[in-house]
């Protein structure tokens, strides 16, 4: 959720309704995608717009927002009939102690400074709040969004706003971060220095992982189908949790697997001595890169072992470190690792007028982030400017 002021290209948005004094809001249409994609790239990729980048971004937005059958994304049309702003919205289903709830997951939220005079953002949010949803959530709000949304009674989840990073190879991780920031930086120039530093550091520093798992616990690689089958049962101890219908979770995982920035998507399970899966994880990773956690879940007694399995899997793959969104339920177990750091990565907020939902959020009794957010989409990180 990122309300911003940026400039997009000229032109009209096809199919806009008759403009009101400050513009109007309507659902996203296929004819809007080119300008919405250009607006997105201008702000979030900050590069000169290329036709193929706009086309690729528009195609992905079509798949994400229009092809699923339940389009909830919104555009604001200014009084001149042009694009004033956009809000990416994905519909999800939650349940609270057995009661079904409709949820809106808010993603990119942006306005065009060349046409907007401060009305587009409030109009988009007001329209969204007047809709069919019982709760609204985001896990990617920037600091502008925090100031913008909290007066509208969004509850902030501070722990979920943090990102944790565990460093395996300090030199190689620094090189990977530099390459991520400046892709043109030659890997050959950084690699030898990073390897020399890590060889020296390896003799002086303790291993970053301090396993706490019992020998009766073991870890195995699993596939997306096994992950999808087991995850709902592992999150059953949350009062406020997703309610995926048949086929929804596998489809969501298939979309998440399209993300490219951090490598392929991998799945793992943690098993007890009886062979029962007591925890699972999913992360993006590849040798020489920084692994990125998508989802991890376990009941209380098995969080530590499941984290051990996640970090061990990333190290064995050859990743130089791992990063992921923090959750209240496994935060204490993270303190068992050294070379671990925290930083603010994006605000996680929830809004609901239902008292029981608001109370569950205050108590931290909500499954949120990962698949119930928008960081899994390609819009969160991928470079659409590749030919």
From TrEMBL:
Region of interest (Disordered), residue spans: 1-24
Top-level taxonomic group: Bacteria
Protein name: GNAT family N-acetyltransferase
Classification lineage: Bacteria, Pseudomonadati, Pseudomonadota, Alphaproteobacteria, Hyphomicrobiales
């Amino acid at each position: 959720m990122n309300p911003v002021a940026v400039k997009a290209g000229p032109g009209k948005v096809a199919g806009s309704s008759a403009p009101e004094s400050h513009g109007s809001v309507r659902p996203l249409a296929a004819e809007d995608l080119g300008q919405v994609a250009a607006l997105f790239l201008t702000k979030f990729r900050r590069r000169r717009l290329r036709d193929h980048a706009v086309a690729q971004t528009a195609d992905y937005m079509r798949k994400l927002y229009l092809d699923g059958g339940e389009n909830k994304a919104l555009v604001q049309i200014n009084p001149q009939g042009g694009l004033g702003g956009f809000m990416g919205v994905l519909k999800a289903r939650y349940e609270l102690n057995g009661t079904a709830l409709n949820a809106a997951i808010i993603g990119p939220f942006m306005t065009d400074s060349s046409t907007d005079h401060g009305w587009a953002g409030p109009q988009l949010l007001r329209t969204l709040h007047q809709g069919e949803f019982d709760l609204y959530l985001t896990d990617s709000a920037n600091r502008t969004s925090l100031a913008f949304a909290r007066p509208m009674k969004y509850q902030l989840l501070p722990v979920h706003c943090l990102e944790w990073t565990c460093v395996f190879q300090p030199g190689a991780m620094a090189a990977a971060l530099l390459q991520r920031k400046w892709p043109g930086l030659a890997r050959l120039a950084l690699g030898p220095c990073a390897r020399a530093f890590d060889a020296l550091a390896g003799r002086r520093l303790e291993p970053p992982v301090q396993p706490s798992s019992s020998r009766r616990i073991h870890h195995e690689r699993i596939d997306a189908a096994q992950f999808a089958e087991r995850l709902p049962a592992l999150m059953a101890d949350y009062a406020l949790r997703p309610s995926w219908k048949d086929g929804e979770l596998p489809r969501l995982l298939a979309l998440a697997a399209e993300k490219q920035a951090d490598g392929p998507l991998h799945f793992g399970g943690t098993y007890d001595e009886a062979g029962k899966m007591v925890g699972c994880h999913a992360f993006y990773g590849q040798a020489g890169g920084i692994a990125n956690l998508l989802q991890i879940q376990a009941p209380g007694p098995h969080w530590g072992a499941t984290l051990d399995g996640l970090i061990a899997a990333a190290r064995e793959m050859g990743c130089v470190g791992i990063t992921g969104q923090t959750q209240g339920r496994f935060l204490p177990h993270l303190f068992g690792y050294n070379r671990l750091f925290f930083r603010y990565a994006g605000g996680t907020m929830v809004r609901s007028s239902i008292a029981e939902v608001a109370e569950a959020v205050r108590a931290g009794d909500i499954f949120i982030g990962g698949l119930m957010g928008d960081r899994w989409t390609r819009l969160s990180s991928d470079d659409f400017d590749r030919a």
